[in-house]
Amino acid sequence: MSPSLAQALLQKINNRSAVIGVVGLGYVGLPMARALHDAGFRIIGFDIDAEKVSKLRAGEPYLKHLGQALYDTLKSSPRFTPTAAPADLAPADAIILCVPTPLGPHHEPDLSYVRTSTEMVAQILRPGCLVSLESTSYPGTTREICLPILEARGLKCGGDLFIVFSPEREDPGRRGVTTRTIPRLVGGIDPVSGEIGAALYRAAVDQVTLVESAEIAEAAKLLENIYRAVNIALVNELKPVLTAMGIDIWKVIRAAATKPFGFQAFYPGPGLGGHCIPIDPFYLTWKAREHGQVTRFIELAGEINHRMPHYVVDRIAEALNHEARSIRGSRILIIGMAYKPDVDDVRETPAAEIIELLGQRGAEVSYHDPLIPRFPGMRRYDFDLASTPLTAETLRAAHAVVIITNHSTIDYDFLGQHARLIIDTRDAMRAVTNPKARIVKA
Question: Does the active-site annotation cover 276?
């Protein structure tokens, strides 16, 4: 085909007449849909979850950290169409795939969502369209998985269609940033695809860097998350070491952070949560084995981070033992079910594993989280639990209160005044003066 298809698509992007399909309306897709809508495009939002589509049509929030205004805007806009019907994506000039990339039971990549969504798009794809994958995966996914599926009906990348990888960089709950203000990477399967993909994202994002290939963009996203995972593992490893020496790891980190160069503060916790850091590094370790390489450093970091829920439970046992109690038969109140502060997101939350481990040891476990009124079913965990009101009576009744997630809305002074024993995994009680509770850091 002639370059006219590329030129026509670029013109549609530049004059905002292009129709953009967003597949997957979750933590990544919905903010991206908003950014593109704000840029002036008509958006077709697709999700297999009909309940999400119904809520969008009604203006009901299902990701509360995004704010009610987003749902109100999309509900009333003639330029936004939510749907659960794949055929409705047919008018799209560009389709962005924002689907999950979880791990299988043996830490192997699960690309089933990428495959099925790409196959769905291939059925309605027409010449001159752009497809962008945003889902984090190992280097080569876009070229090895998506490209053959999209070309299977005779279209050729770089001429008839255009394919890029642009890794998502969403951080739910982070204040002061939006999808527009978070810099973007774009890497194409070929140079023409890269240029068109960069043009689309530049319409909605302030800073876009075009890299030489999809593989560079894929590897860069993994490096970003591996960097965090490794540094978190470092402080998680130091935590029990320094605790045994009677040294507060959080005070050590704050002291080291006074150095204005050569150090970046990372903080320990009860384990890793979210869709990125607990999962993404293993995509690279798996792919490395295919090339005869080993990733000992990354795998060691994963081992340390995944061990932290067990460390927390051991610290709870030690703290209760000091009170002449065992975990068995103790009433333990978990503070915070979400994987990070101030979001209603439980993906890979360490709280779930801690609750399971405590239950296995015979504890009576409850939780309080103002953002998670009822524990949602997860792939590995399914507890019949609802958030317990945080009252003086609830705190006094608990043999131990365990802070897993340090939501800013929690009254930590109140905890300190009414709880007997607090196991603090987040240094959340640091600012509390004269607490009546005994505080143990974990």
Answer: yes
The active-site residue, picked from 98, 146, 157, 276, is 276
Half-sphere exposure of 93 (CA within 13 A, CB side): 20
Model pLDDT for residues 121-164, shown as the tens digit of each residue: 999 999 999 999 999 999 999 999 999 999 999 999 999 999 99
Rounded to an integer, what is the distance from CA 303 to the centroid of its chain?
20
90 phi and psi angles, rounded to 5 deg: -55, -35
Q: Could you tell me if 324 and 391 are in contact, meaning their C-beta atoms sit under 8 angstroms apart?
A: no
Check if the beta carbon of residue 126 is closer than 8 Å to that of residue 1. no
H or E element that contains 112: helix 112-124
Do residues 161 and 125 make contact, with C-beta atoms less than 8 angstroms apart?
A: yes
Question: ∠ CA(207), CA(210), CA(211), 5° rounding?
Answer: 135
Other Cβ atoms within 10 Å of 176 Cβ, number: 5
pTM of the model: 0.91
- What b/e sequence results for 81-109 when a residue is b if at least 16 CB atoms lie within 10 Å of its CB, and e otherwise? bbbbebebbeebbbbbbbbbbebeeeeeb
% the chain with pLDDT above 70: 99
Delineate the domains of the chain, giving CATH numbers in brackets. Answer: 4-212 (3.40.50.720), 239-441 (3.40.50.720)
329/74 Cα distance (integer angstroms) = 50
Q: What is the spatial distance between Cα 415 and Cα 328, in angstroms, rounded to a whole number?
A: 23
Tokens of residue 142, six digits: 């876009």
